[in-house]
Amino acid sequence: MADDQVRITRAIDFSTSLRHALPGLSEQENRARFGPLSRQHGHNYRLEVTLRGVPDPVTGMVMDLKELADVLDAEVMARFDHRDLNRDTDLFEKRVPSPENLAGVIWELLEDALPAGLLDRLRLHQDAATYVDVIREPEPAA
Questions:
Q1: Cα gap 110→36, rounded to integer Å
Q2: Could you tell me where the beta strands, DSSP code E, fall in the chain?
Q3: pTM above 0.85, yes or no
Q4: What homologous superfamily does CATH list for 6-135?
Q5: Where are the domains of the chain?
Q6: Cα radius of gyration rounded to whole Å, the chain
Q7: Do 20 and 27 form a contact (C-beta atoms < 8 A)?
Q8: Could you read off the pLDDT of 25-51 as tens digits, one per residue?
């Protein structure tokens, strides 16, 4: 990484309801596979989004934080906050809304919405004891 690059992180909080269940499995099979997580429940998530880049020489910013807030509102808050991940979005029709899968979905949404290469890390806290990191792999050395 170049010496003049910096990382900046913005955090947001959102709440969802969900259940761990695979389509095609019966309720009994889902209960056997996922236990109590197969019942409807909720989480209050904290999402940290880290951008990496060279600050603009005029503004001193990697990205205007208002623009980042707008992206997070559109891509995360509007889709997931106070929503049922299984019923209110088609993003979990074929996959369980585990924290790993939710973090992966959010990464894909943000990667498409932000300038190319700016997204560096995403950390999704499911609770005080559990979080998932998705990290951009470093570019191979030439």
A1: 31
A2: 6-18, 41-53, 83-84, 119-127, 130-135
A3: yes
A4: 6-pyruvoyl tetrahydropterin synthase/QueD (3.30.479.10)
A5: 6-135
A6: 17
A7: no
A8: 999 999 999 999 999 999 999 999 999
